[in-house]
Design brief:
Pfam families: cobW, CobW_C
Organism: Teichococcus vastitatis
CATH architecture of the largest domain: 3-Layer(aba) Sandwich
Keywords: Chaperone, Hydrolase, Nucleotide-binding
Radius of gyration: 20 Å
Number of strands: 14
Function: Zinc chaperone that directly transfers zinc cofactor to target proteins, thereby activating them. Zinc is transferred from the CXCC motif in the GTPase domain to the zinc binding site in target proteins in a process requiring GTP hydrolysis.
InterPro entries: CobW-likC_sf (IPR036627), CobW-like_C (IPR011629), CobW/HypB/UreG_nucleotide-bd (IPR003495), P-loop_NTPase (IPR027417), Zinc-reg_GTPase_activator (IPR051316)
CATH superfamily of the largest domain: P-loop containing nucleotide triphosphate hydrolases
Largest sheet: 9 strands, mixed
């Protein structure tokens, strides 16, 4: 079977904002997924002792299936080495330096060759909630915020209510397109930055929609047993986008029989990319279209999504 794309989460933020704590949380809460973390300094990662399994060639293996490595030399070379590992990571988290403008890294990751193998899923900017809102005037922090799909307020357990209100208002003005979440002690809600692969079967059947660990967001899934019309799908997503925090999925297109597309939406930015040819959905028992939506609770219902996307499903010949 051809390996699927490996999503990348880019973690940025000013010095001392709490990026490493967030990365630690992502690795510790991987829930069985193999996640690779690329960091500037190994020693900065504070992985709980019970997670560490061993180290070799600059890569620390973790007992939960994750790995952690230092950023040595060229970023693209580091990514290529990770993608050649067996087993391959299911996701990659890159922690940038606190004094880095992530724009150049984002440009590198948008390279078509890299995008096919490891598409940029989310740019996450970590902001210290205890810092004064005036600190957001820093040109470097503003550059980091400009690239963000998701802004995580760290240290909210240490910030007073008035200070939090002030910094939230400032962030909303500076980066209105980003999703703003709280991350006390680094506890970022993982589905917001790294949704589960919609191709993966659910671990258990649930009566209602699966919800992230905070009561602000919910996850809704939609599937279809037929290919979708590309122009109708793009139009439907355009109508839904303003009410979505994140969306990701795979589907076959009626305009290109046998070709599957990877769809992603983050921070109002939607992308569609042809996938490397693999087994058809019918051979794997999976629906031919499967999309996961993450949104604030109550913003949309599954019925509304089904009405919009139902219009995209190609009818059988003769109907």
């Amino acid at each position: 079977m051809t390996a699927g794309p490996v999503p990348i989460v880019l973690v940025t933020g000013f010095l001392g904002a709490g990026k490493t704590t967030v990365v630690n949380h992502i690795l510790a809460e991987a829930d069985g997924r193999r996640i690779a973390a690329v960091v500037n300094d190994f020693g900065a990662i504070n992985i709980d002792a019970e997670l560490v399994a061993g180290a070799s060639d600059g890569v620390v293996s973790l007992a939960n299936g994750c790995i952690c490595c230092t950023l040595e030399g060229d970023l693209l070379r580091t990514l290529a080495n990770l993608l050649r590992r067996d087993p391959r990571p299911e996701a990659i988290v890159i922690e940038t330096s606190g004094v880095a403008d992530p724009a150049d890294i984002v440009r590198n990751l948008m390279d078509p060759v890299i995008w096919r193998e490891a598409p940029l899923e989310t740019v996450l900017c970590v902001v210290d909630a205890t810092a004064a809102a005036g600190g957001l005037e820093d040109p470097l922090l503003r550059a980091q915020l400009r690239m963000a799909d998701v802004v995580a307020l760290s240290k909210t357990d240490l910030a007073d209510a008035a200070g939090q209100r002030s910094i939230r208002m400032a962030l909303a003005a500076l980066r209105p397109a980003a999703v703003l979440v709280e991350a006390p002690e680094g506890r970022i809600p993982l589905p917001v930055v790294l949704p589960e692969d919609p191709a993966r079967p659910p671990r258990q059947r649930e009566a209602g929609p699966r919800r992230p660990r905070i009561d602000r967001f919910e996850t809704l899934s939609w599937t279809a047993e037929a290919p979708l019309s590309l122009p109708r799908f793009q139009a439907a997503i355009g109508r839904l986008a303003s009410r979505l925090a994140r969306a990701k999925g795979m589907f076959e297109a009626v305009e290109q029989p046998g070709r599957s597309f990877l769809f992603q939406l983050a921070g109002g930015r939607a992308t569609l990319a042809p996938m490397t040819q693999g087994p058809e959905a019918s051979a794997t028992g999976l629906p031919r279209a499967r999309i996961v939506f993450i949104l604030e609770i109550g913003r949309l219902s599954l019925e509304e999504i089904s009405v919009e996307l139902g219009q995209c499903v190609a009818l059988p010949a003769g109907r």
